[in-house]
Amino acid sequence: MTPGAPDVLVSDVERVFREEYGRAVAVLVRRFGDIDVAEEAVQEAFVAAVRRWPSDGMPPSPAGWIIATAGNRAVDRHRREASREDRHAQAALLHTPDEPAEEGAVRDDRLRLLFTCCHPALAPAARVALTLRLLGGLTTAEIARAFLVPEATMAQRLVRAKGKIRDARIPYRVPGEADLPARLGAVLTVVYLVFNEGHTASSGDRLGRADLCAEAIRLGRLLVELMPDEPEVTGLLALMLLVESRRTARTGQDGGLVLLADQDRGRWDRGLVAEGQALVRACLRRGRPGPYQIQAAINAVHGDAPDAAATDWRQILRLYDLLLTFDPSPVVALNRAVAVAEVEGPRAALALVDALDLDRYHLRHAVRADLLRRLGRDAEAARAYEAAMARTANASEQAFLHDRHRALTRPGEAEPGGPEFGASEPDEIGAGETEPE
User: Fold this and answer.
1) DSSP 3-state assignment of 430?
2) In angstroms, rounded to a whole number, what is the distance separating the alpha carbons of residues 338 and 181?
3) Which family does it belong to (predicted)?
4) Contact residues for 174 (Cβ-Cβ < 8 A; gap 6+)
5) Which of 241, 230, 293, 234 is nearest to 268 (CA)?
6) Can you tell me the distance from the alpha carbon of 434 to that of 437, in angstroms, rounded to the nearest whole number?
7) What share of residues in the chain are helix, strand, coil (percent, to 5)?
8) Most buried of 63, 183, 350, 403, CB within 10 angstroms?
């Protein structure tokens, strides 16, 4: 074994976990019909991988190894827990080689699990939390920070949600065509919030998690395939593609956060921009606006501008005015205030921000700090930056805020510039119809 090889392999296990946890859980839920059994078995499989892969090497199909190992662990657990009379029946159930083909337009384990997590019998916030846990592999602590609630509260919420699925015998399938519209809103919200967690992680050393964004976009494409005539489905996919197009430009060479105004637009993925804008135009032709379509249109306006100075902020402000009629949430109002600052000036925007009840939301304090800085009220701006730093667990955001704070308290060491957080970035977790319980 070469020095340092185990560390590399542990990082490989972590990468496989991020990329394949949701798929593995979904496969085992389909097979065993029990979320707790699936989660525990997959977690045990990854623990086994940490022990074995450093010495045995990475298997040819890491995801297949995890799913097979987890399946064996689940079978062993059923055998241990089954009574003697039940063992033959359990064995027959667990080793059924072929399952009947599922009817419906989409045959995908993760999409089935997504609709299960978004069943109307579950509370809206529980749907999002459960999806982030089961499909995204986030820890309870990470989800709690995303929802701005204590970890113990989130743990209880997850236990209750899984218990509800079990006790109510909620089916593990994509609903029939007649039931899809009623289930759509919750599913779109969940996909969007998974994307938001990937766009800006609630904690950790990295600004975002590309794997979660990729998973959300994959699910978005499947939903468009399933419901091509629903403009909000198309709007959500357009929104995610337009935001994702800026991923590589959002961080500098040192991994630090780069604001929209300072990004090198030559690094934007023009293929994603073009695809997203085409979807926005398709939505406009339908004439049935909704919040995801409007947010996509806001990001399309940014995509039209060759540089930050050319941004049509008046059009963006009009779109935020329309968005507020669909989603009058304080987070949308905060994003609108950023546009107001560009059109009417920081003083008008500050009055709007000060009226918002978002004390626990770090971006509210970050936006407020930038507005105060632009008004020359440096001492107040420094305190607002301190409040923002205290309310985010994302290391990249903390480093950015620290630099802005230092520029005020130690003049000459750093030069602030450009609109602060919130300028056209996607609404963070907590917005709209999924406010914490």
Assistant:
1) coil
2) 34
3) Belongs to the sigma-70 factor family. ECF subfamily.
4) 102, 104, 105, 106, 111, 112, 115, 226
5) 241
6) 8
7) 70, 0, 30
8) 350
- Rounded to 5 degrees, what are φ and ψ at 257? -65, 135
Tokens of 346: 């920081």
Residues 63, 118: Cα–Cα separation, whole Å: 25
Contact (Cβ atoms closer than 8 angstroms) between residue 215 and residue 272: no
Residue (of 163, 143, 164, 162) closest to 154 by Cα position: 143
Percentage of residues in the chain with pLDDT exceeding 90? 44
Query: Between β-strands 203-204 and 393-394, what pairing exists: parallel, antiparallel or unpaired?
Result: parallel
Average pLDDT over residues 101-107: 42
Mean pLDDT of 57-73: 90
Q: Which two tokens stand for residue 36?
A: 């707790």
CA torsion 222-226-227-233 (nearest 10°) is -10
Give Cα separations from 10 to 50, 54, 63, 398 (angstroms).
6, 7, 15, 27
The Cα 389–Cα 397 span in angstroms is 8
Q: Report whether 21 contacts 38 (CB < 8 A).
A: no
If DSSP codes are grouped into helix, strand and coil, which group holds residue 394? strand
pLDDT above 60 (res 105) = no
**Would you say 38 and 25 are in contact if contact means Cβ atoms under 8 Å apart?**
yes
Structure tokens, 426? 């996607």
| Per-residue pLDDT, 65 | 93
- The H or E element containing residue 393 is strand 393-394
